[in-house]
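Q: Give me the 3D complex with guanosine-5'-diphosphate-alpha-D-mannose.
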Amino acid sequence: MKKVALITGITGQDGSYLTELLIKKNYKVHGIIRRSSSINTKRLDHLFNNKNFRNKKLFLHYGDLTDSISTSNIISKVRPNEIYNLAAQSHVKVSFETPMYTADLDALGTLRILEAVKNLKLKTKIYNASTSELYGDNKAKIMSEETKFSPVSPYGIAKLYAFEIVRCYRNAYNIFASNGILFNHESPRRGETFVTRKITLGLSNYIKQGKYFELGNLSAKRDWGHARDYVWGMWKILQLKKPLDLVLSTGKTYSVEYFLTSCLKYLKIKFKKKIINKQIHFIDLKNNKIICKTNNKYLRPNEVPYLKGSSLLARKTINWKPKTNFNLLVKEMIDSDLK
Ligand code: NAP
Ligand code: GDD
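A: Here is the predicted complex, encoded as structure tokens.
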């Protein structure tokens, strides 16, 4: 019998790569989508518009994770073998502006799924999208499953609740539920307001139209991998015999400025840095035009300055390691945005 998966957040970056992977693995994939005034399924269209997949392998249901009734109705109808809970208000800066909504969705959304599975007495395995944001301002040089959480944003704090409620339901009700503590992962499908995509899209607009773009904190460091590798890890986590919380990361960390200058290097754009009115400007040496500059409006009330993860346990238990390195990620994102 074909396995049935339900993905919340199927229209997002990870949801689309995971759908591709599960369809390849011969799953029937169900996804929850939100009604919106403009089309929000563009990352899935290549699958949904394929007549071999639509309503044969891929099924979409309207719902919302802030709505207990629709969440539980869909789970009851689909009765999935596996749930991948990826739905979230996933933007850290936006969580400072919408803290209540972020808590309702990112924290209580996970609880709604767990409650539905418990009440329906299903044997469903649940993957919960947890995050390296949980480490917050912890000063550890490298973070693992043992490192203390210290979140500093409404997003990180909502995700901490989700992490703990997964462990609680696992222990209290014997539900198979695992947290993947994923470090940043990017791709050409990354949302356009996350920093890597802002840079690759900003540079492609600069090349095509000569327009500059603006960034916030250039010194923050992140452990960036490719989303395709990370959704493969999510699937592997649910194939374990017992639930386990695992870190997925590359073990390398680079600053935002390094990501920007790596893109400039790949594009063979020579530049100089200049401080004007306390803002850093990156100036094209060929024509003296501004490519990019900083603007304080992109700074956050609280920042996570440094993230670097150890996924040794994932290597041991699920034989997972990322396949795409930093330079390949930069190349793939730039090439795609230039097209
Ligand atoms: P994303 O691109 O922002 O996708 C978020 C998904 O959640 C979208 O499908 C979105 O639907 C959906 N969603 C938003 N509000 C919803 C609601 N009220 N009800 C149902 N669905 C809703 O995020 P991502 O990068 O794919 O990340 C996937 C998950 O992993 C998220 O939980 C994120 O917090 C977590 N995570 C991401 C990273 C990373 O680096 N990417 C790292 C660690 C953890 P719309 O398309 O309609 O907006
Ligand atoms: N978004 C954004 N926009 N970030 C900027 C900018 C800008 O213009 N300029 C500098 N940054 C800095 C941020 O301050 C942060 O330190 C870093 O770039 C990365 O920001 P994001 O790309 O927005 O990602 P994030 O690390 O805050 O959150 C992502 O990764 C988490 C895992 O650690 C999201 O995908 C979260 O959902 C995920 O949990």
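A quick observation: The mean pLDDT is 98.
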